[in-house]
Amino acid sequence: MKRKNLKERKNKLDMTFDIDMIKKVYERYPERIAAARQITGKPLTLSEKILYTHLWEGNATQEHERGNSYVDFAPDRVAMQDATAQMALLQFMQAGKAKVAVPSTAHADHLIQARVGAESDLQEGINKNSEVFNFLSSVCDKYGIGFWKPGAGIIHQVVLENYAFPGGMMIGTDSHTVNAGGLGMVAIGVGGADAVDVMAGMAWELKMPKLIGVKLTGKMNGWTAAKDVILKVAGILTVKGGTGCIVEYFGEGAESLSATGKGTICNMGAEIGATTSTFGYDDSMRRYLAATGRQDVVDAADQIAEHLTGDPEVYANPEHYFDQLIEINLSELTPHLNGPFTPDLATPVSEFRAKAEANGWPLEVEWALIGSCTNSSYEDLSRAASIVEDAVAKGVKPKAILGINPGSEQVKYTAERDGFIDSFRKFENARIFTNACGPCIGQWDREGAEKGEKNSIIHSFNRNFAKRADGNPNTHAFVASPEMVAAVAISGRLDFNPITDTLTAENGEQVKLDEPKGSELPAKGFAVEDNGYQAPSEDGSGVVVNVSPTSDRLQLLEEFPAWDGQNITGARVLIKAFGKCTTDHISMAGPWLKYRGHLDNISNNMLIGAVNAYNMETNKVKNQLNGEYGEVPAVQRAYKAAGIPSIVVGDQNYGEGSSREHAAMEPRHLGVKAVLVKSFARIHETNLKKQGMLGLTFADEADYDKVLEDDVVNFLDLDQFAPGKQLTLEFIHTDGTKDTVMANHTYNQQQIEWFKAGSALNLIKQQEN
């Protein structure tokens, strides 16, 4: 089938992907919102409108309690990136369906490493990952899924440009799916098993979120950018303050932001643990939709515009309608740098020097990076390029290397046409990387990183956990706006404040950088020659998807065993994780990305980044079979071979970060039976449930300290597993004493059925038969 590029599509009347689906969503809005208002008896927030119009049951028949009710939803579409799509589609192949039930796409953006520059890196990525890309191309072709090829762009930027629409609901197998909130969606990051449910035509379950309202007043000025809004919010709410909540932005300040700026803010909502974030439909969204060839969406949305934002009463008296309220005056907001090692350590640039010196953070910067799904829009590049042009005009040479990852081929092509890429190249050591995730997810072959030297970098990405960008645990990564990243690249120092500080030009003159200037949208419109989209076959029944049995990259899945109905007894503690244990600690990215389609091979990275509370080391746990210490995966494989069950114990917000379902599938594959922690990050807890594992929390967090390295663990009442009923665990110590620990869980009856069947997918297959 001949591929149609974006320019050709735009010459047609049906300019928008899935416009008929979007119109059907809008047609049901008035009736469903009227039903929701009648049931709730009050005005509705935007978040509530979208949730209630996407109920699986149709019109609301009962009010769903925030933070308590489990609700079945019917999302409009599914998006997957290549690293997670492999496992999601391997699972979908087991579901016995001929075609996906909702519009779905897969995007090749995670597997391309940044090293030399765009052209050579892209070709090397294609060469190294051809088996995976060919698999994704064929499986998408067979099952009616759109495929965006390597180089097409970063999933969330491509979704914003092509698929996101006001008032829609989508799920995606990446935690930053929330980026689509910039166009007024409720877009939520999920594990692959959730995506399989929706693609298979099943309901998608979510606990009804609580609502956090963020009222934005005033208007940004000078060096302040949309990125600074979410950096400020992250400092207020912390990495877990948004857990179980939708963050809804409103107010005159919200309306003053561009659609891509709104996307930036929503994108980093993942870093505060929020279910998602969103904005009401407004003129900035109209402008962006029209500029990206979707005037037909604007025309349809305008017919129900009153339903695509919160009710006026809500925004007039927000304290009555939100569970928490934050107010930020954009006129007073200043640029921030967040970090290191956590995205919620927020510091205004004016206070950074003192804070850095007090903490011993290295101030000199060798690398400054602009891009990622968070900040790689046309507007972002234009504003950063203006800083570079100003420095060149004033005779100031950059001290750090500037790396650029454009968000999509459309953004790159248009930015190149308009001269921004040439602007960056005026810095001799600038690197233009592929339209892909690159350094943001650890796909960066940074020269010298293996030395492990203490250093600092600055980037416009979203996450800055230790080792995430370059694999060096001593790299202090700081998050800022593209404008600030460009300024720091020029100065070479993190403590450079462009609002007050000067730079030395080549002629010795002291100069100040001008405030950034940029364009929300290209004056001459977006352009692209080949956007990299592959449309699926109308009939994929004849398409063959081959997976070699000898491949080390791809492996067909086997069913996880069903629960035997008995209490788990004689279990061992594989590891008690100390402190922060994100999905990067549980299943690292970087070089391990190549095994995302091979469950057994990638299981060799299981929990190798977690700190063992018993010796404060990583990847070193006691093997209870022989008393020796070994690597976590090796010890767990020994337990599995011996038929001995095991559990993992963890700290607060366990599983924070990416939607990575491998972090749940690996322990399940290797025989871990339960994960018992102080608290969970939402997506990871759901992923554990979907894979047929027990995700439990200490009823008394102090009981974490009672779990000893050599304990034998017995479940005393798992055979009575029921919603709302605590489970009782017995920890028998080597001296013969024991502690009884009560564990809470959030399983409803449906989720208990997943556990009994061995996984949610097992249950789907049983129901099909």
From TrEMBL:
Cited PROSITE patterns: ACONITASE_1 (PS00450)
Indicate the enzyme's highest-level EC class.
Answer: lyase
Q: What is any one GO biological process for this UniProt entry?
A: tricarboxylic acid cycle
**Which chemical reaction does it catalyze?**
citrate = D-threo-isocitrate
- Could you confirm whether the keyword Isomerase appears in this record? no
Q: Short name of one Pfam family for this protein?
A: Aconitase
Which molecular function GO terms apply here?
Answer: 4 iron, 4 sulfur cluster binding; aconitate hydratase activity; metal ion binding
The Aconitase/3-isopropylmalate dehydratase large subunit alpha/beta/alpha domain covers 54-492
What are the record's GO terms for cellular component? cytosol
Q: Answer yes or no on keyword Transport.
A: no
- What protein family does this chain belong to? Belongs to the aconitase/IPM isomerase family.
Name of this chain's protein: Aconitate hydratase A
